[in-house]
Specification:
The protein has one domain (about 5-50, about 75-170): Deoxyuridine triphosphatase (dUTPase) (Deoxyuridine 5'-Triphosphate Nucleotidohydrolase, Chain A). The protein is about 10% helix and about 40% strand. The protein has helices at about 5-15, 105, 120, and strands spanning about 30-35, 35-45, 55-60, 65-70, 70-75, 80-85, 90-100, 110-115, 125-130, 130, 135-145, 150-155, 160-165, 190-195.
Length: about 200
């Protein structure tokens, strides 16, 4: 079942679902639109073009899942604005830190679905996100693909995507065990466990 606006506000207040950011003048509970939360653009990255590291998703000799991702370069906004060019894809990171409570803290698994904002579709730009698992704590990382010619401009701290929160049915729901907690956006060419 999806959380409504009141549920989201309660989760923010009681479980720090979304941490306030010193870069924003509004509290997270004031950035709920309908029954979704609009998150803001924090940082923009691209794979380092000088890197010769090919992303790898596979297995080590012992059969354990591993992955390797290239180093990234953080782009700097000019005058507080990012210019995103047609045909390019970017890795973006949210301003906000999301703290999805652990199952043991709330009795059910709280998850999230990341989605695009419709205004970006009109600008031929699309955000691709993923699920946010119970127990995840960190900034969101998403892919942003721009098809508008020659570019679009997005101000840092402007809303870039939305999250629809939900709770899982009662029963076992494992907490997030991945490597992407906090601000991490790449393995910087190192091989790391796949799960």
């Amino acid at each position: 079942m999806y959380l409504n606006s009141d549920d989201i506000r309660l989760m923010i207040e009681k479980y720090n679902l979304i941490e306030p950011s010193p870069n924003l003048d509004q509290e997270p509970s004031n950035r709920i639109e309908g029954a979704t939360y609009d998150f803001r653009l924090g940082k923009v990255f691209i794979p380092d073009p000088a890197s010769d590291i090919t992303p790898y998703f596979g297995f080590d000799p012992g059969g354990s899942e591993i992955r390797r991702l290239p180093p990234l370069i953080e782009l700097e906004p000019v005058g507080g604005t990012y210019r995103l060019y047609e045909g390019n894809s970017y890795i973006i990171q949210s301003v906000e830190t999301f703290n999805l409570p652990k199952v043991e803290d709330v009795g059910v698994g709280i998850g999230g679905l990341v989605g695009s904002k419709s205004s970006y579709f009109i600008a031929l730009t699309e955000l691709t996100g993923t699920f946010i698992s119970p127990g995840f704590s960190g900034k969101l990382k998403c892919k942003l693909k721009c098809d508008f010619r020659p570019y679009i401009e997005v101000a840092q701290n402007y809303r870039i995507g939305c999250v629809k929160f939900f709770y899982h049915t009662i029963g076992k729901c494992d907490d997030y065990q991945g490597i992407w907690q906090g601000d991490k956006v790449t393995t910087d060419g190192r091989i790391e466990r796949g799960y």
